[in-house]
Amino acid sequence: MQDKEQLTKLYEEAKLKNKHKLPLTDEETDAFLKMKKQEQKTGNIIAVIFVGLVACWMFSSSDSETKESKKCYANDLQCIGSKHNYEATIACKTLIASLGAYGHEWVDGILDSKLSYFRWRDIDKSEITYIGDKIKFYNMLGNAVPYKYECDYSVIDKKVLDVRAKPGNM
Q1: What are phi and psi of 167, to 5 degrees?
Q2: How many domains, in total, are found in the chain?
Q3: How far, in Å, CA of 9 to CA of 2, rounded?
Q4: Which residues cross the membrane (predicted)?
Q5: How far apart are CA 58 and CA 161, in angstroms?
Q6: Could you read off the pLDDT of 87-97 as tens digits, one per residue?
Q7: Residue 161 near residue 154 (C-beta atoms within 8 A)
Q8: Is the four-CA dihedral 156, 160, 162, 168 of positive or negative sign?
Q9: In this predicted model, what pLDDT tens digit does every residue of 109-148 receive, in sequence order?
């Protein structure tokens, strides 16, 4: 505690001398620099906390807005299909890829969706058939053949019900 008091006293003396443009002793210079660093650290910590709070506020308010905007009517295929497209893609893609006996190659771009289309499989059970054509399966000769595929997905249970594929494009 005495070191802190002494450091503060030296710092105040250094500030006064610095204000009047008087030379500082080595001790005063060290005290001045240490206290300045502490002030900067405190300022940085406050800035980080402020930025964190602002970010939390921004994301929390956008989350509540998104939750409001994600409410869909029970029979609104476009809304429900779009809302669950990402989770259906994650669940379906490995099962679709496993349909190829000799390997596969996804041909979708970075911004393309593997499941580009969807339709009701069973509206009463909230089951959707997602459809795509962004894969090529290799045949036994090593040729890549384009296929279209379907994945039946239960929105309520969040699980894949069935996958199938046949040669061709959409």
Answers
A1: -60, 145
A2: 2
A3: 10
A4: 42-60
A5: 38
A6: 999 999 999 99
A7: yes
A8: positive
A9: 888 899 999 999 999 999 999 999 999 999 999 999 999 9
